[in-house]
């Protein structure tokens, strides 16, 4: 999940195309700090992703698979 967020924020597809073409032009990238990550399924993997997203300065909204169990939403 963190890898996917970085993939899109850093526009890896563009970097790979530029690398294949031998072109190294500058372009703006997005910062993940201050962005919101949504997590559906707050089990072990969801919690691990949440910890890493928090470490990168992201806000996390999570949803448990079992809606009857309460979940604190972190900011």
Descriptive overview:
The chain is of the alpha+beta class and 75 residues long. It is 40% helix and 13% strand. It has three helices and two strands, in the order H-H-E-H-E. A two-stranded parallel sheet has the order 1-2. The longest helix has 12 residues. It is elongated, with a radius of gyration of 16 Å. The two termini are 18 Å apart. The mean pLDDT is 86.
At a glance:
With 75 residues, the protein is an alpha+beta fold. The protein contains three helices and two strands, in the order H-H-E-H-E. The radius of gyration is 16 Å and the shape is elongated.
How are the secondary structure elements laid out?
Blueprint (H helix, E strand, L loop, with lengths): L1 H8 L2 H10 L14 E5 L3 H12 L3 E5 L12
Parallel strand pairs: 1-2
The total of helices stands at 3
Shape: elongated
Largest sheet: 2 strands, parallel
The count of DSSP E runs of length 2 or more, i.e. the number of strands, is 2
Radius of gyration: 16 Å
What is the residue-mean pLDDT, rounded to a whole number? Answer: 86
Spans of at least 5 consecutive residues whose pLDDT stays below 50 are: none
- What percentage of the residues does DSSP assign to strands (E)? 5-15%
Which secondary-structure class do the elements indicate?
Answer: alpha+beta
Order of helices and strands: HHEHE
Which structural traits does this protein have?
75 residues, alpha+beta, two-stranded parallel sheet, elongated
């Amino acid at each position: 999940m963190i890898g996917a967020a970085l993939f899109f924020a850093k526009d890896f597809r563009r970097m790979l195309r530029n690398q294949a073409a031998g072109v190294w032009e500058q372009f703006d990238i997005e910062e993940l700090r201050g962005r919101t990550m949504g997590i559906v399924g707050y089990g072990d993997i969801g919690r691990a992703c949440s910890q890493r997203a928090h470490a990168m300065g992201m806000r996390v909204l999570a949803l448990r698979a079992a809606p009857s169990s309460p979940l604190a939403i972190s900011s």
